[in-house]
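Private note to self, pasted from the team thread so I don't lose it. Backbone tokens:
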């Protein structure tokens, strides 16, 4: 009965004219960004953070959330039509989706992607609604030691599940933590790592870092790549799959939904890991008897991963909403958006602002409904957008980034910081270093330090406080197991092969 009353409250918030409008804008922009290769949801959310500063907090979070799960679907369109994943999680969709397009079944692939994403998004939102309240109650039992250990687990999880080298992911996480410590110490008021630069007294600006590392770095990377678009088809036939295709896709959609919902909660998990895991599962279940073979246009290779990446995208909101701990880079940006609006992330949000909490959850249903309305009839429009030359898009993106980051504090220093971190992000990309662990370290580092110092103050400097609590000891134990696991040579080789990008 409590869940029902909470959902009614959420509907009263989510279906206001303003919030419906911003939800629609969010999923539309997200789909557009997903369709245009090169600009993923992380870069888009980072660029639009300043825009939300003047909005109502609920409208801002609803729009940013819509961008995220909208981009998860949009990325499949370009993956199926031109074999270019518009978003990282759509890499797997290329394998069978584009082969279906080559066989004249692009419409069916796009249709099952939309239907699978809608089903997964709806069921994942139900899971969020069901588990949010119990997890929030559990979170109220957390003290400083438990929060510290949970954040250690989050950072180690980000290292384990990041793309590429473990050592590089660890180095990026540590760098993020160090950047987060720049500025004035909360407890003592002493300046740390400012090197006499007055502008660093308040530390690095989160929006400047995120825009630089994602927005500008992506621009430079994609300009260098110079992707051609000559392979865009002129038109696509009906997007409605046949009854046989729907029957074949039903079980993969359900398996992908629950696999994605589970993996989306893990630190560092989310849509990318979910889509890879779903494809692997479906291929294993089908075995050698798959007709057609996986990788040659099997619709189950589209249905499962598409459902998994949408479910993973949505359940990744659970740790962010209930514990205040981001599970991936987009959730770190969402926490940044909450901080911009003076909202302290964590379990207290449900009690202090239940309308915002449940309105955001219900808006995911509304957003998934908008997505299926947008993507089934408007495939022709997305195809035309794929023909827009890159050289016309990127100057506009650069202007939006510069104006947005300047408008936060009306300070040119932030623009220079954005440019500096853009160059740094480009270098990181060249070195094969993923930037998501850096962002997670930047967000979690100061929070981890604050909780560690608070726990030590309460225990009068007794380090055993971190292992005497069952919850804290459990989190630290899992963290240690993950570290030992990732150091195993067999796991490390398999991990780097699984996450290797073409």
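Design output:
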């Amino acid at each position: 009965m409590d869940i029902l009353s909470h959902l009614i409250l959420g509907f009263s918030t989510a279906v206001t004219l303003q919030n419906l409008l911003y939800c629609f804008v969010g999923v539309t922009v997200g789909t557009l960004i997903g369709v245009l290769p090169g600009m993923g949801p992380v870069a888009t959310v980072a660029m639009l953070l300043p825009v939300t500063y003047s909005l109502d907090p609920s409208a801002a979070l609803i729009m940013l959330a819509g961008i995220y799960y909208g981009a998860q679907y949009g990325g499949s369109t370009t993956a199926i039509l031109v074999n270019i994943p518009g978003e990282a999680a759509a890499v797997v969709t290329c394998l069978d989706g584009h082969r279906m397009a080559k066989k004249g079944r692009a419409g069916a692939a796009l249709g099952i992607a939309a239907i699978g994403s809608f089903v997964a998004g709806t069921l994942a939102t139900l899971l969020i609604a069901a588990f949010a309240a119990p997890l929030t109650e559990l979170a109220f039992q957390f003290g400083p030691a438990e929060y510290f250990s949970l954040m250690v687990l989050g950072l180690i999880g980000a290292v384990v599940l990041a793309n590429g080298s473990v050592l590089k992911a660890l180095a990026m996480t540590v760098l993020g933590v160090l950047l987060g410590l720049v500025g004035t110490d909360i407890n003592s008021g002493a300046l740390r790592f400012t090197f006499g630069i007055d502008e660093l007294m308040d530390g690095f600006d989160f929006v400047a870092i995120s825009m630089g590392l994602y927005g500008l770095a992506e621009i430079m990377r994609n300009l260098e790549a110079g992707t051609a678009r000559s392979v865009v088809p002129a038109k696509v036939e009906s997007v409605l799959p046949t009854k046989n295709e729907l029957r074949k896709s039903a079980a993969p959609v359900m398996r992908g939904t629950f696999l994605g919902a589970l993996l989306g909660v893990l630190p560092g998990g989310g849509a990318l890991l979910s889509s890879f895991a779903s494809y692997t599962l479906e291929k294993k279940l089908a075995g050698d008897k798959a007709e057609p073979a996986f990788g040659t246009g099997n619709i189950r290779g589209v249905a499962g991963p598409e459902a998994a990446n949408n479910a993973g995208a949505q359940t990744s909101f659970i740790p962010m909403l209930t514990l205040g701990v981001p599970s991936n880079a987009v959730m770190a940006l969402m926490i940044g958006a909450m901080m911009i609006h003076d909202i302290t992330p964590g379990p207290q949000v449900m009690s202090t602002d239940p309308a915002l909490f449940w309105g955001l959850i219900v808006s995911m249903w509304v957003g998934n409904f908008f997505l299926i309305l947008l993507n089934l009839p408007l495939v022709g429009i997305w195809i035309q957008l794929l023909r827009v030359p890159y050289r016309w898009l990127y100057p506009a993106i650069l202007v939006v980034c510069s104006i947005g980051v300047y408008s936060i504090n009306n300070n040119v220093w932030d623009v220079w910081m954005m440019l500096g971190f853009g160059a740094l992000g480009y270098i990181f990309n060249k070195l094969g270093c993923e930037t998501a662990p850096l962002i997670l370290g930047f967000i979690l580092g100061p929070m981890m330090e604050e909780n560690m110092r608070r726990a030590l103050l309460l225990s009068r400097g007794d380090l055993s406080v971190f292992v005497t609590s069952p919850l804290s000891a459990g989190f630290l134990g899992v963290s240690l197991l993950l570290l030992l696991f990732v150091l195993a040579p067999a796991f490390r080789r398999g991990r780097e092969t699984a996450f290797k990008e073409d």
